[in-house]
Design goal:
The chain is built from no helices and eleven strands. The chain has strands at about 5, 10-15, 20-25, 35-40, 45-50, 60, 70-75, 80-85, 90-100, 110, 115-120. With about 120 residues, the protein is mostly beta strands.
């Protein structure tokens, strides 16, 4: 059974930091695009960051570039999203997703985690 399990969300003040984790199991995700999306209340799910497992390319949304950093731990089959200088507008449910090709379109991803809430207070 394929599973992506996010953790690490929470409540933080503006300017603070959080690290989200996404633990993958059930199949190999080598060469898959591992992508973070977020969805704020009343808004569509939007792309945040993506990288290919064991690849060199990492992509970030302009709104998070320079503040968020994606990384991986192959031994733990886990990807991370380090978020710094958080802003109230970063408040959302954050999801990790895995798919065979990189895409900004959430519908392109067959595997999703359950999401983790990030709330940034002003």
């Amino acid at each position: 059974q394929v599973q992506l399990v996010e953790s690490g969300g929470g409540l933080v003040q503006a300017g603070g930091s959080l690290r989200l984790s996404c633990a993958a199991s059930g199949r190999t995700f080598r060469n898959y695009a591992m992508t973070w999306f977020r969805q704020a209340p009343g808004k569509e799910r939007e792309f945040v960051a993506a990288f290919r497992w064991s690849g060199d390319n990492t992509y970030y949304a302009d709104s998070v570039k320079g503040r968020f950093t994606g990384s991986e731990d192959n031994a733990k089959n886990t990807v991370y999203l380090q978020m710094t200088s958080l802003k109230p507008e970063d408040t959302a449910v954050y999801y990790c997703a895995a798919g065979p090709v990189f895409s900004l379109d959430p519908s392109s991803y067959p595997y999703w985690g359950q999401g983790t809430q990030v709330t940034v207070s002003s």
